[in-house]
């Protein structure tokens, strides 16, 4: 019953969002025509590669921004936040549908952890967003580094320590820790801390089969992203060509990666996930050390305010809007 309700929500969100995006793009066909064939090819490739990586738990927002810069894709910085959210919504929903249908997991654990992340993102966002993002990222980066190291030294390949990772759900204190942990991770999204890697580390350390982290993290983000993306579409604050191509090719990337995860040897998959967590720890610590500059900004009311930003405005945009 619980899984049926969850999957129904994912299907409804997928169809509804696809329809809304299609209608908006159909009304503005000139935007697609104005994009060069070269940029279209780049966006298609970016969609496949980044959503392939997203399905493995790496996340897609950071890699998309990096590839925009590396490939010199012609997209206004002002449109990047909306473009990231809109272009990844359908792939994330598809990930949630695939993994929720494929794995044998305790429905109550899945539902409670997804609900905790969603509630945390809304209730905790106000408080977290007022905290120092750099300190949060530094602490999370160190915590992820330690978690990945524990996962590495307890890996069966080395035979140093025994750790059971075969649970399909949690009960008792482990369930309480998992729910509270996902609530905190949901709230931390507003500080630019992605949910994927910390969630994988947490469920692994609590003894769950690592493959079961995928429906939890995909489901959490699948219920968070559509609401924000709909707002960006209504305001026209996204690049329509990127929105279409990254979504479509992203779906193909999801299928390819899903097949790999589903059929992967669990011990090999653990090594991949450990590498992902180390990478995420590195990027968080790196962002926490990025230099700040103080710049003056004139608002629409012609009053002058001061804001703090990194030297790279695109990096700042990614931190604020990254929801994974």
Please outline what is shown here:
By secondary structure, the protein is mostly helical. Helix content is 71%, strand content 4%. Strands 1-2 form a two-stranded antiparallel ribbon.
Description:
By secondary structure, this protein is mainly alpha-helical. Helix content is 71%, strand content 4%. It is built from 15 helices and 2 strands. The chain has helices spanning 2-27, 29-34, 37-55, 61-70, 80-102, 107-123, 125-129, 133-153, 172-188, 196-205, 213-222, 225-235, 240-263, 266-288, 313-321; strands at residues 292-298, 304-310. It has a two-stranded antiparallel sheet with strand order 1-2. Helix 10 (196-205) crosses helix 14. The two termini are 27 Å apart. Mean pLDDT is 80; it is low at 294-323.
Keywords for this structure?
mainly alpha; single chain; 324 residues
Rg, nearest Å: 20 Å
Structural class: mainly alpha
Order of helices and strands: HHHHHHHHHHHHHHEEH
* Structure annotation, total helices: 15
Distance between the termini: 27 Å
Instruction: Provide the helix percentage.
Output: over 70%
Q: What ranges have pLDDT less than 50 throughout 5 or more consecutive residues?
A: 294-323
Mean pLDDT equals 80
What multimeric state do the chains show?
Answer: single chain
């Amino acid at each position: 019953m619980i899984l049926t309700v969850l999957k129904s929500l994912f299907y409804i969100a997928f169809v509804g969002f696809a329809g809304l995006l299609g209608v908006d793009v159909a009304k503005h066909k000139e935007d697609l025509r104005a994009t060069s064939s070269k940029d279209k090819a780049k966006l298609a490739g970016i969609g496949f590669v980044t959503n392939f990586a997203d399905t493995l738990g790496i996340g897609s927002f950071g890699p998309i921004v990096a590839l925009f810069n590396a490939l010199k894709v012609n997209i206004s910085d002002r449109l990047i936040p909306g473009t990231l959210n809109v272009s990844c919504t359908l792939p994330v929903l598809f990930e949630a549908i695939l993994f929720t249908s494929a794995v044998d997991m305790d429905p109550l654990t899945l539902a409670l952890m997804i609900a905790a992340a969603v509630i945390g993102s809304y209730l905790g966002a106000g408080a977290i967003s007022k905290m120092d993002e750099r300190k949060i990222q530094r602490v999370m980066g160190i915590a992820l580094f330690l978690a990945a190291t524990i996962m590495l030294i307890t890996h069966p390949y080395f035979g140093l320590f025994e750790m059971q990772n075969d649970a399909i759900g949690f009960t008792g204190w482990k369930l309480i820790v998992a729910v509270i942990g996902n609530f905190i991770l949901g709230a931390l999204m507003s500080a630019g801390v992605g949910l994927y890697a910390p969630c994988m580390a947490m469920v692994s350390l609590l003894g769950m089969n690592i493959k079961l982290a995928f429906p939890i993290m995909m489901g959490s983000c699948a219920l968070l992203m559509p609401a924000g993306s709909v707002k960006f579409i209504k305001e026209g604050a996204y690049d329509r060509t990127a929105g279409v191509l990254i979504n479509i090719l992203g779906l193909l990337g999801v299928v390819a990666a899903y097949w790999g995860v589903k059929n992967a040897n669990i011990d090999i998959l653990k090594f991949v996930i450990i590498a992902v967590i180390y990478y995420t720890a590195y990027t968080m610590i790196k962002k926490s050390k990025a230099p700040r500059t103080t710049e003056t900004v004139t608002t629409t009311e012609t009053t002058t305010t001061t804001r703090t930003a990194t030297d790279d405005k695109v990096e700042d945009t990614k931190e604020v809007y990254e929801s994974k």
